[in-house]
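Complex 641.
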Amino acid sequence: MAEETEIRTYDPPEEFVRQANVKDASVYDEAEKDYEGFWEERARQLHWFKEWDQVLKWDPPEAQWFVGGKLNVAYNCLDYQVEQGRGDKAALVWESDEPGEGKSYTYSELTAEVSKFANVLKGLGVKKGEPVAIYLPMIPELPIAMLACARIGAPHSVVFGAFSADSLRDRINDCEAKVLVTADEAPRGGRKTPLKKNADEALADTPSIENTVVVRRTGEDVDFTEGRDNWYDELMQEADAECPAEEVDSEDILYILYSSGSTGKPKGIVHTSGGYLTHVKATTSWVLDVKDSDVYWCTADVGWVTGHSYLVYGPLSNGATSLIYEGTPSYPEADRFWDIIERHGVNILYTAPTVIRAFMKGGTEDLEKHDLTSLRLLGTVGEPINPRAWEWYHENVGGGRCPIVDTWWQTETGGIMISPLPGITATKPGMATLPFPGISAGLFDEEGNEIEGPSDSGNLVVKRPWPGMLRTLYKDPARYKETYWEKYGDVYFAGDGARRDEDGYYLITGRVDDVMNISGHRISTAEVESALVGHQAVAESAVIGRQDEDTGQAIVAYVILEGDREGSDELIQELNQQVRRTIGAHARPKEIIFTPDLPKTRSGKIMRRILRGVAEGEQDLGDTSTLADPSVVDDLKAARQ
Ligand code: 7RM
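Predicted structure with 5'-O-(acetylsulfamoyl)adenosine bound:
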């Protein structure tokens, strides 16, 4: 990697090291000597009703952690914190879409609310092991509903609020939820998403749903189906604030979270209880350096895994104060984030490169209006961060004094896998650096050989099980095996490409499969293609992610129209609408290109590399000789003019 070794190294600042949760680099060697013992020690930081008989049972690709152990995840995040004297400290601080508006819950209050809602769910007939669907804005009722599920041992399935009625319907039907928790509307950035209206549309075709619980967020008039729909506040008023936490097995399902894969059908990623909580609690403490005295802010939506692990379960199981913000970074003014940090005295900020790049564009003026000296540590997640954005974040948000943890992980991994330990690891802008203690990462080539030492490229793998790993894909163990455990045998194939430098540091370059990453949101090319061909004017479509300086990648859709149809601005609008309706607004293409043909190999496989090259305006598209009809390339170039 000689040509890019100009990258500067940043040692952990002394002041930070002095107070860091871990500062002794021997943790790496110790974990390496006995990784099961290492994770066992981490599991001991939790509250267990009954201890495990065995740390790990590994029957590839099936893992069980803390076998025979009994615990309750909500008990760990609530009651156990109260028992340790945190009853009167803030657990959740909610900032609404409108500046300064919001509320806050102490650990005791949150325990009572969660217990009440757990009783509400029980009252609606939800039993241990029965999935509950949740489709809510970023309001306290979202973590409350999740923790209530955890309290009674019912897996939750949270559906991101920007998903369409169709997406919600498919996710409900896959897990056959009996209850849906939703709200009238979701305010965000001064606009409102009609959640209940979407839910009504979805529920026209979800035979499993018996009841909904609807939070009154804006008070807007919504349709109400007697006998099915219930108001959250009315049920809560009647509910008892005592609800014993169910003893669940370490391997009982905590949640299902749907995530895009290489096909049009999202994968129901399954996380269980004991191992998952062990992993997220340990990484929240060691990587994000969260202490119970901290105000910690993870800006991710709870509809994605980052919100599950590092807004809800990680910080609460560490007794911290977790901030949950409903709105966008720039509403009503461009300085909203900095205003929030100053007003709430945020100590740790965990956000995404997309957000950082957007602020970078706006310059430092907005930052300078605010006192950000409460910040001690910065984190990033979701996509590769370019060194320039890293430097900007370090200098302008962190005032040059805060370490940055660039954390690589996935919905599948449950928790952070590759990241600096901020009191130990010297960081290099753009690099996720080293595997977390106990984690064994590696690089493989396309032929299935492991690559040793520094390398410019390779497919990222994880070589042994870890406690937060997905256990299966819901009701689809064959796809689980095939997607992650067949390419290289008994090592986990992550679907990401990476480089490794002479210090063993990893730099993640992005997906090697057909999954796009738009502002840190995972969307598969196949999902968007299938939405587009759902429009009667579209004969065929090929979708790619091209590089974009704001959103990391942007969606470009190549569309072949049905015989007599002609491309127009109106049709572009309609197709955008089509994608919004079938998947959600976040999946709309940035560019739609009408073309008479697509570049295909003789066997009919679309060559996305060529489409990407055209979309990125590259002159040299590499080898095009394997194309069935090489003249397509000129047509494509012309179509883009
Ligand atoms: C946590 C999350 C996972 C995909 C993953 C990568 C990309 C995530 C980083 C990153 C470079 C990072 N879960 N990714 N973190 N790429 N550096 N620090 O994002 O399931 O939604 O996405 O995101 O491609 O495979 S996710």
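The CA atoms of residues 440 and 463 lie 5 Å apart.
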